[in-house]
């Protein structure tokens, strides 16, 4: 269903004065424009509540691009001239009618072929209302394609996600809905598929005969910053596990699709989520650990605990850390734990996947009292991007000694950091009609039903918080989770096998 590679469209960004639009969307659109991946036939209507003129809005767009760009932002005036603004009331039909007429003029002026993208980059409570109005007030009645891009959170639990889905389905069909999970725009997350399916050496080993466990860690040094209000109702389980972490697990665990197209890839991911063992009630404590940061040191600076953050309840029971053990009950993965771990205010910012292979059947190097390190395949998602294969080789000059060696490939992306490029790729995918790296409703629903069991149990049972210091690797119980299975977490930051 790919369109041409230089798509034309009118893009309406709801929430155009917000953080996401300014930090990610405008710079990403600019990069597409600069690289020639956006045709001249595009226009953007920024939609938000506050009154702004087109000129003021264009100035904002330029500022946001300039503060993100590594160059001076040549042709920025030309780029910004494609931007228009509408001060909008999301509940008022008249405001939509005005927007409809404005869009029709711009369609004509920019020859967008009636293609429209509606990007909801704003408070989720309005997602449903906007979708319904877009339909009822005629904005989705177009000659070309119409697509809805929707940011997370997609609901708060399965029930609310279903309600939201029903609302947006009144205006858009499933294949017109692009649910963003920005991890699916990250270069190395996309690379999982290629590493697995374009190499003969991994796939034969990619199962419970050769892999002992898989660890997926996404740690942050930042706290909740100014997002306390949102985070209090979310916590790390809903904020990171329901989407990003489970998406990475699905990509790691899925069967090779029969074709690399949207339907086949999504359908294999869905099967993984369906095979995930349900964890509920008294099992939750055995499989999942939650944490909340207390005060501590980050880069030698003292930082306060979660309960002292703005808009946070001083008695808050919200988790800022989650570690869990997932089991995928199918032939390929039976018996292989997938450990996931994510937290705020941890000792470093790092997202990494470690695939640990089983030990060799016997150690021929026992005479020198060496314990051989297991083979590891490490996929570095961020901040560094690349893969490392950890092997054992001969210590120079002594064939009785084995020493760990690493084969590394560093995929140094632009600036070494892959946001906002993640958004750039996702926007481009959406414009070309490629929904592979967006989440299908079935994936969303299955992820919520898995996570709901855990959050319901946690809600009933208050935790002993805070239970980890800022700047640490999370609560001790997270180490115990693996120790019970005879494993341990590979370090969060630099993964030096020698030091473990
Ligand atoms: C977002 C969460 O989805 O992902 C944030 O809402 C989190 O709380 C962020 O900080 C992490 O993204 P990244 O790309 O920095 O790993």
Task: List its salient traits.
500 residues; alpha/beta; 8-stranded mixed beta sheet; 6-stranded parallel beta sheet; disordered C terminus; binds 6-O-phosphono-beta-D-glucopyranose
Short description:
This protein is of the alpha/beta class and 500 residues long. It has helices at residues 19-34, 54-68, 76-80, 93-110, 127-136, 158-169, 187-197, 228-232, 235-253, 262-275, 284-287, 421-432, 441-460, 476-483; strands at residues 9-14, 42-48, 83-87, 116-120, 146-150, 177-179, 211-219, 288-291, 293-298, 301-303, 321-326, 338-343, 350-357, 376-382, 386-395, 398-410, 468-470. α1 (19-34) crosses α12 (421-432).
């Amino acid at each position: 269903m790919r369109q041409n590679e230089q798509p034309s469209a009118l893009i309406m960004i709801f929430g155009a004065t917000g953080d996401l639009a300014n930090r990610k969307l405008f710079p990403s659109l600019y990069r597409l424009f600069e690289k020639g991946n956006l045709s001249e036939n595009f226009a953007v209507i920024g939609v938000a509540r506050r009154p702004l003129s087109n000129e003021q809005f264009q100035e904002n767009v330029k500022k946001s691009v300039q503060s993100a760009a590594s160059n001076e932002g040549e042709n920025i005036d030309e780029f910004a001239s494609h931007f228009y603004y509408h001060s909008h009331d999301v509940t008022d039909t008249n405001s939509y009618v005005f927007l409809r007429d404005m869009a029709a003029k711009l369609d004509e002026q920019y020859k967008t072929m009636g293609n429209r993208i509606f990007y909801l980059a704003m408070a989720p409570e309005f997602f449903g209302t906007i979708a319904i109005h877009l339909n009822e007030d005629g904005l989705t009645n177009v000659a070309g394609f119409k697509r809805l891009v929707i940011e997370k959170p997609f609901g708060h639990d399965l029930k609310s996600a279903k309600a939201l889905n029903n609302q947006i389905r009144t205006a858009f069909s499933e294949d017109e809905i692009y649910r963003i999970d920005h991890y699916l725009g990250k270069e190395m997350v996309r690379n999982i598929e290629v590493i697995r399916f374009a190499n003969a050496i991994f796939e034969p080993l990619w199962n419970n005969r050769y892999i002992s466990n898989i660890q997926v860690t996404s740690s942050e040094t930042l706290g909740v910053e100014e997002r306390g209000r949102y985070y209090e109702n979310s916590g790390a389980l809903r904020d990171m596990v329901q989407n990003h972490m489970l998406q990475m697990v699905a990509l790691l665990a899925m069967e090779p699709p029969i074709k690399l197209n949207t339907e086949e890839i999504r359908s294999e991911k869905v099967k993984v989520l369906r095979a995930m063992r349900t964890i509920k009630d008294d099992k939750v404590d055995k499989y999942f650990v939650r944490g909340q940061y207390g005060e501590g040191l980050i880069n030698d600076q003292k930082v306060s605990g979660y309960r002292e953050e703005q808009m946070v309840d001083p008695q808050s029971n919200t988790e800022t850390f989650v570690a869990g053990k997932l089991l995928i009950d199918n032939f390929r993965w039976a018996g292989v734990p997938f450990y996931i771990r994510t937290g705020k205010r941890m000792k470093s910012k790092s997202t990494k996947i470690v695939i640990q292979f089983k030990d060799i059947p016997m150690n021929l190097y026992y005479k020198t009292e060496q314990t051989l390190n297991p083979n590891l395949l490490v996929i570095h998602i961020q901040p560094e991007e690349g893969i490392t294969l950890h092997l054992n080789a001969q210590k120079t000059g002594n064939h009785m000694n084995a020493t760990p060696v690493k084969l590394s490939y560093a995929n140094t992306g632009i600036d070494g950091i892959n946001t906002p490029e993640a958004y750039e790729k996702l926007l481009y995918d959406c414009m070309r009609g490629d929904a592979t790296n967006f989440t299908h409703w079935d994936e969303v629903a299955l992820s919520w039903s898995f996570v709901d069991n855990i959050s319901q149990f946690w809600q009933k049972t208050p935790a002993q918080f805070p239970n980890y210091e800022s700047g640490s690797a999370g609560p001790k119980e997270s180490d115990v989770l693996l120790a019970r299975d005879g494993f341990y977490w590979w370090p969060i930051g630099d993964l030096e096998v020698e030091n473990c």
